[in-house]
Amino acid sequence: MMLRLSIFGYFFLLLLGRAVPACAQVEYLSLDQQTLDLPQRTFYIEQVLDGRTDRAGIGRIRPQAALVLTGSLRPADLYPNLVQGLTSFLQTQLPARPTDRPALLLVRELRVGELFTNGTAVSGPTGLLTGTGGGIIRQARAVLDLYLHAADGYHFVQTATDTVRPTGMLGITPSHERNLKKTLERCLQQLSTPDWKTAQARPAQSLEALTKVGHVASPTLLYAILTTPVVPGYFPTFLSFRNNQPVPVPGLQAKATPRTAAGWENLPELTPVAAAGHASGVVPAGSWGFSDGQQLYIYHQGRYAILQRQENSFGFMGMPDNASQELKAGNLLGAALANRRPQPYTLDMVTGRTTQFADAGRPASANWVVRIYVYRNLGAGPALPVFLNDQAVGELTENQVLTLTWTDPVHEPHLRLGSATAPELTFLPNFRQPVYVRGARKLDPAKQPLEIVPTRVGEFDLKAIRLRTRK
Fold first, then answer.
1. DSSP per position, 9-77
2. How far is C-alpha 137 from the chain's CA centre?
3. Which tens digits make up the pLDDT trace of 180-230?
């Protein structure tokens, strides 16, 4: 029986091309139980680089333990990420031998995908798809570049491409790990006996140049937390963290309690404590994180994690995305933690969001433009001036809208209504959707006269204002 590859390929590519939701739990794959058979190889993998433009996982799959009909698609990745997972696997399976040449493997593509079908896709006598039954079709694809590591740099050797498509009865196709192993093995077989002489005649490239492959150039955004010393204290919000403006707490420390669950041995339980060892009241509940004057910590999924500098951002290893609810239920305490593995995250310094991948990559066109709509509804009092970062930008009375444009991803906007000394509204635009700021009908010295409202509320209010002003 043969799969109709044109239709199969269409659905597979459709699945691979779907965007990965930022909040979906990641399904991690491990190659630890897989083996490679490459007796003819003449190299060993000294280093693995990720040259993909989209580095947010390797596809979308159903949870391994889920039933076929109930499991929903989740983003997938190698554990803990592609580079570390592949490096460990390849160096374990392909140890260096005296006659092997050192090589660098640049991953151009590595994907897995699934297609759920309610019928067996086979080619019948008439060429039409026929059959019965159902199941999941799993597929994997790899595109790898091999570089010879010589004294003068790295010389391109060859590109290898392979796609694993299952054959036979649907519903019993190999696991994703086995498909990944197979497509990697086939690619490496293509590279096993390269023409080293021809490769060395090609121009050498530097490691720095290869490291940038697939990484879209973007402006360097530097924030105070990246450029100025930190002091002991807690950060009430992400903005206070980004601006390195903690509430000072002299002698603030992080108490580390070792964890014993497998995979968590190097990630202790962290608790902020004062120098005297009293934790009560040191860091208020709901704080974004804290600093002990040397190290930075983020509060994430009900636990503190150590922030590690990653160029001009930060990353950390933390609890899985659904852990906070289970923590409340007491399901991740003690031995239960052994069933979960630490998950890598990256902190987006522009928006404050955490991404579930160590390096998700950034869209090719980072357009830092956001519209800010400041308005006052029916019944508002006399016209009041609006100030943006201490500069008057207009006036508002009832049924009026002031449209502002913000293009600065390094600094945050500060809005005031009424006077340059009125209470200030400071917020962090996410540059993905407009910001709607509603002004009070009447000023109350005890209240903030401006408030950010949900997008749907702002859109409704602006539509109502347009309808009223047309009359």
1. HHHHHHHHTSPPPTTSPPEEE--TT-----TT--EEEEEEEE--S--S-SEEE--TTS-TTTPPPEEEE
2. 27
3. 999 999 999 999 989 999 999 999 999 999 999 988 776 778 899 999 999
pTM of the model: 0.69
CA dist., res. 1 & res. 120, Å (int): 10
In 324-419, DSSP assigns E strands to 343-347, 354-355, 370-376, 384-388, 391-396, 400-406, 414-417
pLDDT value at 3 more than 60: no
Q: How far is residue 319's CA from residue 302's CA, in Å, rounded to a whole number?
A: 8
Q: Tell me: the pLDDT tens digits for 153-194?
A: 999 999 999 998 765 454 455 789 999 999 999 999 999 989
Rounded distance, CA 73 to CA 83, Å?
Answer: 23
What is the full DSSP assignment across 395-433? EE-TTEEEEEEE--SSS--EEEESSTTSPPEE----SSS
* Torsion region of 33: left, alpha or beta (phi above 0 gives left; psi -120 to 50 gives alpha): alpha
| CA distance readout (Å), 371 to 365, 393, 418, 434, 461 | 18, 14, 21, 5, 16
Q: Which residues, including other chains, have CB under 8 Å from residue 172's CB and lie 6 or more apart?
A: 135
Q: Quick one: which of 464, 410, 454, 461 has its CA closest to 434? A: 454
Average pLDDT over residues 131-144: 74
Residues composing the chain: 471
Nearest Cα residue to 435 out of 459, 411, 417: 459
Instruction: Report in angstroms the alpha-carbon separations of 414 from 20, 388, 423.
Output: 33, 6, 10
Q: Which two tokens stand for residue 100?
A: 């092997």
Pick the closest to residue 400 from 369, 379, 425, 423 (CA basis).
379
